Amino acid sequence: MKKIITLMLLLVVAMTSVTMADARTKRRGRTKARTEQTAGLTALERKVVGRHMLSLQWISWDYFGSVEIKKQADGTLTCKGEQLSRENDDYLKLDGTITIVDEKHLTFTGDIAMKVYHINNGEECLRQGTYEFIASGNRKYWRMQPITNPCDECADYVDIYFK
Fold it and tell me: Looking at the whole model, is its pTM more than 0.70?
């Protein structure tokens, strides 16, 4: 009986060692991928490139969406993301490019689509063009400017949060 228990313990230890080694390998892979993503970036680009939380106050400040900013081979910074409501079919979607003015000021060029049930009769509002995202004061996010919704004359707080 002692031999069986000892054998079972050895088997558990061996399986645990393999699982721990797999976890270390996965962590190394994620670290290597993260390092490759930031290789060749300036200090300022490292602050901007990557995944950020994204919000529109009409959808939620409790449940965020996300936006991914990536540096392409040609040096362009692309920006794509969305926030989806958990309550209904409201959404915010961004798809475009980013130019870094400084650490508190980004310029976005592209499409910003939003649908909020009580704005613009529940129809999508599409903005196309160039918008500023500015982190004023001690804010830990960049807020889209201008904030006035062109489809319904209300104030939209489209925020991209620092990492």
Answer: yes
